Amino acid sequence: MTARPTTTTSTPAEPTAGLLDVVEALTTELVARITDADRSYADPGLLTADELHRACLANLTAIISALADGGSPRLQPARAVGRLKAERGVPIAALLHAFRLGGRLLWEELTARSSGPGDPRLHALATGLWELIDTFSDAAVESYRETEVLLAQVDAQAQNRLIRTLFDDHADNPVRTLTALRLLGLPESGTFTVVSIEPTEPGTTLPSTLTGGLLDLGARSVWDSQIDSHTGLLSAADPAALERAAAELTGLVDGRIGLSTPFTGPAAIPGALTEARLAARSARPGTRTTIRFGSQPLAHLLVTVPEAAQRATRQILGPVLRLPTPERADLLAALDAWYHCHGSTAAAAAELHCHRNTVRYRLRKIRDLTGRDTADPVQSAELHLALRAVTLLDH
Description:
The chain has 395 residues and is α+β, with helices and mostly antiparallel strands.
């Protein structure tokens, strides 16, 4: 450590006089004290010696100038060093400690330049000096925090771009998918599934516990969130862990959830995304349901060709759909319950909390309006298809 930089032998009129003349020597001393006190500055990944020296020089100069003339402090150096240390990953505690060390060094120099401890000028200088150290420290911390937020946003944006890269089709350059997997910390092999989530309320964010909850079940995940949907890639070392994670999704997320068929190579991700989105749309809107692609082939067909499905629905159930809303709802509910209860009128009545004769009456009215009878297998199949189309597409 270098010697204290005082060069005067007589007491000047003001202890602050001439401080700027020795600011280079003070800077050298401060840099030595900072690096001695905090070994993290020895890490070449943080600040270089030249950067630390320039930052100390700028802040000491600004503090001394404000202390000498009593004017408004020039805080740009404090903001600059706060920004620089945030960018380089220097801990905020080290940033604050450096300002305290600077204040102590200046106080030692002022004391040495005074007439002694009883010098009445020291009291005012002490108050002014430590107020300036607080002001500069606050400005540096504010800049540090602002930079942290900006860096976090940049990191999040970069991660989001990587995640979206996963779901793009890179058949012509599969290395891009592999690179994204590596940078996101995901394995290149194992068991994967793509998840598509359509929240019940558009704009709903994913719960903060989702990734951790799935990881506890043995599945790693990354997510791409849009205003009306969320897309995720789940990976696990074995299929059983992936199934456990997939089974928990309904309890963790509110909305329609579609799962692709499991796959083992990243080249299948784009196709799996199509499957997952189709599976999610195969659940009734507004429900909290998880559907695996392939488990609802009729629903998949209807949402794949919605225009054709809607035309068929109007042809089959048109007279029912044109009824006043309450009557239409009663008839469709009876038909839905009857199919759900495998053609049992009594079970459908229990589900609807009405008499079974009411169910029979409503089914007969559907027959009379549409010309299709649930007792006829072909006509019943047409009614079932149209009913599914109404529940999936009429919203």
